[in-house]
Each structure stands twice: as C-alpha cells, then as structure tokens.
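Why should sequence recovery work at all? Because a backbone constrains its sequence more than one might expect. Tight turns favour small or flexible residues, buried strands favour hydrophobic ones, and helices have their own preferences. The token representation captures these environments compactly. In the example below, the structure is given first.
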C-alpha cells in the first residue's frame, strides 16, 4: 500500500471513530445552547464565533 493510500485509510478510520463518539455522547451543552444558523451565513457565523476568518470571506483572485 502506498504511503498516500495508507494515510487516506488511516484518516478515514479516525473520522469514523470520531463520528461514532459524537453519536454516542450526543451534542454538548454548549451546542444545545447555541442557536442554529442555516444557509450561506452559517460558515461565516461559526468562524466569527471561533475568531477565525471564514473561507467564504477570503478574497478570490
């Protein structure tokens, strides 16, 4: 197996394990308190909450 294929395989299983944990424990208290925002704005809103710039606000070109 090539190194790239191995890394992809490993990442897939790490993600599967994470999803399984999230399903087991459910949403955190903070997630339940946070208002749900849908649509195009959700990435911008969640990024501004964490203090990061959303990819959609980056200049293209």
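From this structural description, the recovered sequence reads:
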């Amino acid at each position: 197996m090539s190194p790239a294929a191995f890394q992809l395989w490993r990442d897939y299983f790490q993600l599967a394990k994470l999803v399984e944990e999230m399903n087991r424990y459910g949403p955190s208290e903070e997630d339940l308190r946070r208002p749900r925002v849908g649509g195009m704005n959700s990435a911008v809103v969640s990024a501004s909450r964490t203090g990061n710039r959303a990819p959609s606000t980056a200049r293209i070109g």
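A few observations help interpret the result. The first helix runs from residue 3 to 25.
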